[in-house]
Structure formats: structure tokens, C-alpha cells
């Protein structure tokens, strides 16, 4: 952002006013690409695991992405502060594209997990660079509308992503899902990168990577937890215990004081947001597998569940953007948690009933 842009930004209440139109359009394009990748890959992953005989590594195919995104977000914070969001976005796009290509040409599930890890690293960097860059261009008063716009960018990928992913798997094979997203990366980059050039260059100070060791510990711990989830016996318990300790130590360094003890205020909000993100990510990863393997749904049918989550998330974000009164906004938080808990209960009910039927077939 430069001095010339300031009057238009201060005087207009539109996200697409001159001086920030390019940034907002580029942000929508980038988020739409990331959204399609997340939804399409989640839809196709049961087919991928079946083709590569990789069901034992299924959890890691998602866990690696989430774990390395912690590294990406931590690194992006340093890059954005010291070098600006433009350089951070370049790094993120390169890692994301390389991960897509590695996954798309993976000869086995291990290579695919490595590709997914690179995707997570890139998406973590991109997420921070996007929010920092757009946040610098868009005035604070418009941030609720900006976040609603970011959520709305999930609507079209949420609606067409599962169907398109299913079509690609059936017509061209599962590799085409990853390669199709890779082909879209240069387009999203061309739309977003020019706007980020005007979002500031950073302080220019020396990069400080002290927090990276804790982010690395958190990532390793998360990978161990995901690995333990698909193991059995004493080894699984050991992996789980080591992973949990690693994540716990790292969280105390990376999160604000009082987060793990649910201290009143921002620490509790951060902790609860973590719970919601974990529930959402777990459902997104395993719901298609559950529906295709245990309930014999097709990939397209299983993808409808992901579409429903993406679309209603966008609806919820649009609602919060229109609530201005402070008291009403405070009520949104418990209301949102109640709705999320209800949704999880609905999702788990057929699973619980099926498990009960297997345990007591005569009842």
C-alpha cells in the first residue's frame, strides 16, 4: 500500500474500491484454488489409497499436510514481518506446486505422503501471506466483510469440487486431481502476486528462526499422533504418548500463555478454535472413507457431505459479518459451538448405531 492509496481506502466502504480491488480478487482466486485442492483431494483420497494399497498410511496423508502447515505458518510469520508477504507467497506457491507434482506422480503411498507434506508447508505459508497482505491493504473496519469474502470463496469449490474430483478419478485416474490443481497454480499466482507487491516489504531485519524448533517439534508430534492412530498394540501407545508430549511442550512455547489451561479471554478462544479445527479436519479426512467403505457410497455421494460443510461454513461466516453489535457478536461464539457440536453428533450417530449393531447383532 502506498500513500496515494490512502484517501480512497479511508473514504470507501467497498472491498473492491480502487487501491485494493486487485488484492481482493487475487485473494479470492488463491483461496478458491486452496479450497478446491482440499475438497477434491479429500473426496478422491479413498480411491488413491486403494490404488496405491496405502490404507495404513491414510491418516498420514492428511496428518502430514496439517503437521507441516504449522511449520509453514511459523516461517511465514517471520518472512512477512521481515521480508514482506510477496516473498512469503512466492515460497508458499513453490512448495505447494512441488507437493502437488510429487503427489500427482507418486509411485507409492510413501511418496504421496511426502508430496502432501510439501503441500501443507506451502499452504501454511500461503495462508499467512494472504491474510497479512490483504489485511494491510484492506482497512480494519472492513475486515469482517473480508473474512466473509474469504469464506465465500469456498462456496463454488465446495459445490463443484467433489463432483469434479469424482469425474476426474473415473475418467482420467486419481492423479489428474493433483495435476489439475497444479495447472491452476500459475493462474492464481498471476492474479495474487502483483497485488502483494504493494503490501509492504517488511522491516528488512535479520530473520529469527527460534520459534521454528518448537514448530518442528509440534509437527513431529502431530505426525506421531497420526501414525499411532492406525497402529495397534504397545507400539501405538508409545507413539501416541511421545507425540502427545511433543505437541504439549511445543504448544506451551507457540501459543499465548494460558491457552492450554483455558484461561479466560483470548487463550480460551484460541483453544476452542483449535478444537473446532481438529473436528473439522478429522471429519473431512475420514468421512469420505467411512461412507465409501462402510456404507458403499460412491465418491460423488461421499463428496456431498464435504460440500455441505463447505457451503454452511460460508453461510456462517456471512452471518457473522452482518452482526455488528458487540453483545450480539459475543452470543455468536457459544451459538456456533452449539451448532458445531450438534453437527458432529448427527455425523457420528449412524457410526455409533452401526457399531452397536455389530456388537449386539441379536438386539
For this structure, the CATH topology of the domain at 3-141 and 155-208 is: Growth Hormone, Chain: A
Low-confidence stretches: 1-11
Q: What would you say the CATH architecture of the domain at 3-141 and 155-208 is? A: Up-down Bundle
Please bin the fraction of helical residues: over 70%
Strand proportion, as a percent range, falls in under 5%
Shape: globular
For the record, what CATH class of the domain at 3-141 and 155-208 applies? Mainly Alpha
What is the number of helices?
A: 13
The largest pleated sheet is described as: none
What does it look like?
- With 363 residues, this protein is mainly α.
- Among the domains are: 3-141 and 155-208, Growth Hormone, Chain: A; 209-244.
- The protein has 13 helices and no strands.
- The chain has helices at residues 6-11, 21-51, 58-83, 85-104, 109-137, 143-152, 155-172, 175-196, 210-228, 234-254, 266-293, 299-322, 326-359.
- The chain is globular and about 65 Å long.
What distinguishing features does this structure have?
363 residues, mainly alpha, Growth Hormone, Chain: A, 13 helices, disordered N terminus
What does the secondary structure layout of this molecule look like, with pairings?
Elements: H1 6-11, H2 21-51, H3 58-83, H4 85-104, H5 109-137, H6 143-152, H7 155-172, H8 175-196, H9 210-228, H10 234-254, H11 266-293, H12 299-322, H13 326-359
Amino acid at each position: 500500500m502506498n500513500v496515494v492509496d490512502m484517501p480512497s481506502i479511508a473514504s470507501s466502504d467497498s472491498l473492491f474500491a480502487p487501491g485494493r480491488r486487485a488484492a481482493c480478487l487475487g485473494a479470492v482466486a488463491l483461496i478458491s484454488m486452496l479450497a478446491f485442492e482440499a475438497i477434491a483431494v479429500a473426496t478422491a483420497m479413498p480411491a488413491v489409497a486403494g490404488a496405491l494399497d496405502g490404507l495404513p498410511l491414510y491418516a498420514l496423508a492428511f496428518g502430514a499436510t496439517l503437521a507441516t502447515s504449522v511449520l509453514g505458518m511459523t516461517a511465514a510469520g517471520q518472512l512477512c514481518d521481515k521480508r514482506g508477504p510477496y516473498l512469503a507467497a512466492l515460497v508458499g506457491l513453490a512448495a505447494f506446486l512441488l507437493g502437488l507434482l510429487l503427489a500427482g506422480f507418486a509411485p507409492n503411498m510413501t511418496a504421496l505422503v511426502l508430496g502432501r507434506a510439501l503441500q501443507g508447508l506451502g499452504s501454511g505459508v500461503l495462508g499467512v501471506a494472504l491474510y497479512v497482505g490483504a489485511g494491510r491493504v484492506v482497512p480494519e473496519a472492513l475486515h469482517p466483510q473480508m473474512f466473509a469474502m474469504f469464506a465465500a470463496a469456498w462456496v463454488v469449490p465446495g459445490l463443484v469440487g467433489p463432483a469434479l474430483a469424482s469425474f476426474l478419478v473415473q475418467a482420467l485416474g486419481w492423479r489428474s486431481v493433483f495435476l489439475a490443481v497444479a495447472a491452476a497454480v500459475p493462474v492464481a499466482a498471476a492474479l495474487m502476486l502483483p497485488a502483494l507487491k504493494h503490501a509492504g516489504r517488511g522491516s528488512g531485519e535479520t530473520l529469527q528462526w527460534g520459534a521454528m524448533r518448537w514448530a518442528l517439534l509440534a509437527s513431529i508430534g502431530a505426525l506421531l499422533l497420526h501414525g499411532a492412530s492406525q497402529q495397534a498394540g504397545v507400539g501405538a501407545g508409545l507413539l501416541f504418548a511421545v507425540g502427545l508430549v511433543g505437541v504439549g511442550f511445543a504448544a506451551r512455547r507457540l501459543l499465548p500463555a494460558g491457552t492450554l489451561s483455558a484461561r479466560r479471554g483470548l487463550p480460551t478462544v484460541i483453544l476452542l478454535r483449535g478444537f473446532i479445527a481438529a473436528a473439522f479436519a478429522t471429519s473431512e479426512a475420514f468421512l469420505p472413507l467411512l461412507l465409501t467403505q462402510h456404507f458403499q457410497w460412491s465418491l460423488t455421494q461421499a463428496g456431498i457431505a464435504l460440500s455441505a460443510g463447505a457451503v454452511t461454513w460460508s453461510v456462517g461466516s456471512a452471518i457473522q459479518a452482518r452482526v455488528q453489535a458487540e453483545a450480539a457478536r459475543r452470543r455468536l461464539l457459544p451459538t456456533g459451538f452449539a451448532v458445531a457440536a450438534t453437527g458432529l453428533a448427527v455425523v457420528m450417530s449412524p457410526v455409533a448405531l452401526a457399531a452397536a449393531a455389530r456388537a449386539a447383532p441379536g438386539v
